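Record 1 of the preview.
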Amino acid sequence: MIFRRVSEGRPYPDHGLTQSTWAEISPSQVRLDDLTTTKTQLDLEHLLDDDSTYFGDLFAHVVSWRGELFLEDGLHRALRAALQQRNMLHARVHSIDKSAT
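->
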């Protein structure tokens, strides 16, 4: 098993972070099997989009909400790590306050 769970969509509230705000978060390592994806498919059009992490941020974007880690952006990086038989991924992790619903 690569991920904790594969999900479609973001169950957490909108965090409003921009690419530059994400860039201010220091990257840390997360285990692939702790991540829940927010996408069920790797979309090449989105992958090659100007604001995709493929061309922009070197690190995946992960949202921590209600004790679960959601892979918001960087599915391609996570899959590459898994194919290289690595179980860790460098990511920027943003925690959403538990009081937000």
